[in-house]
């Protein structure tokens, strides 16, 4: 394909891409402001605190805009070229339509690289800063670390807590939904505490069950030995550095759901930036089939809605174990790659 033609197509797409990035940045910032302005007016934080919160969420907003603007730019650029019969002239000149699509991957590979660096370095720290900024605005301390569904099974015993809430200092923790089974005796309680220095669990007025006896409730607290170590629960995987995610995904001491969440976020940090390239291929092939701008706008909405439905559904499937974390992270891209392949076959 003539280099001049490539430059003309890329110039048209770049013009629309700049407009798309500005549009999606504006829409997302308006959404953030609409959901936070009432809280800012209520708590009246200093201007610097409010600005720091908005600045912290900017990397996340930017990455979304960089990706979502890709189908917007390509579909509207190709619809304009269709309307002005430029694509017909190019085809009449002996250039196959699909040869207009492949050059689009080059600039969006650069976009994917920028998005990857942003997702790897700035987005996790920004999300953590966003949370800290709002706790500062609310003038309350962050909630203590907590761990869900703790289980420990040494020989001849079983310790379970539905939730462990660590206290400052890390030597004690509050237990909720507690069960201890030792030999033929089972103790259950709504509340309890963990003393890591004395290596004990204390259950508050537990119910005691033994074979052949009716359950009875203890009049006071019951303390039992517990030799496991109290580990700090893993934080939000979206806010963790990449090196921390790798360590979590390979840590056998973590719960399977926590390991899967870390593996999923690790894969998503590569998959999401490359969505820009996948969108370029799928939108480019689809744009060659559209004949007017109304259809292009409808296609943009379809792209974004379909991608968002897949993108927002797969984290739960990965954490629950219904899908392998890597497959779940790449599933939206795989779906649009298949779409691009089907459209390319249609245009061949």
TrEMBL record:
Membrane topology, as annotated: Multi-pass membrane protein
Record bears the keyword Cell membrane: yes
PANTHER family per UniProt: SLR0882 PROTEIN-RELATED, YJGP_YJGQ FAMILY PERMEASE
Protein name, entry field: YjgP/YjgQ family permease
Region of interest (Disordered), residue spans: 206-243
Compositional bias (Polar residues): 215-228
Protein keywords: Cell membrane, Membrane, Transmembrane, Transmembrane helix
One Pfam match: LptF_LptG
Keyword Endoplasmic reticulum: no
Subcellular location: Cell membrane
Membrane-spanning ranges: 16-41, 61-79, 100-119, 273-290, 295-314, 326-345
